[in-house]
Design a protein that fits this description.
The protein contains four helices and five strands. The chain is an alpha/beta fold.
Length: about 120
């Protein structure tokens, strides 16, 4: 899992993602969100597991590049195959320029063969 974490951090650094201060041992704030298929996902359900929270906006140029190439889906599967949990969270709301309704979002994730839960904000 350390190898995957290193790859992920390197990837995110290349993508220009900045990180807030995170301390080992801190408890992440809880949440429960629903995925595009109507299933509920609570962070508490994954206690003790390696969890990747990907905040994804389909209109972002980096998201376009890495999802359209299939790289992100490959990386997601590597994490899941190694025993991790990957949750994609779309934080856009109806007031955002890149907002997609449920029908458009489902078409997007299906056309790109996304296999991880895609959570609605």
């Amino acid at each position: 899992m350390k190898k995957l974490l290193s790859i992920g951090l390197a990837f995110m650094a290349i993508a220009g993602v900045s990180f807030a201060q995170v301390n080992n041992g801190d408890t992440a704030p809880g949440f429960t969100l629903t995925d595009m298929q109507g299933n509920s996902h609570s962070l508490e359900d994954f206690r003790g597991q390696f969890v990747v929270l990907e905040f994804v906006n389909p209109g972002c140029p980096f998201v376009v590049k890495f999802y359209d190439s299939g790289y992100m889906q490959k990386f997601q599967q590597e994490v899941v195959d190694a025993g991790g949990v990957w949750l994609a969270v779309n934080p856009t709301t109806s007031s955002h320029n890149d907002y997609m309704d449920d029908e458009a979002t489902l078409a997007y994730i299906e056309s790109r063969s996304v296999q991880v839960p895609w959570l609605k904000n």
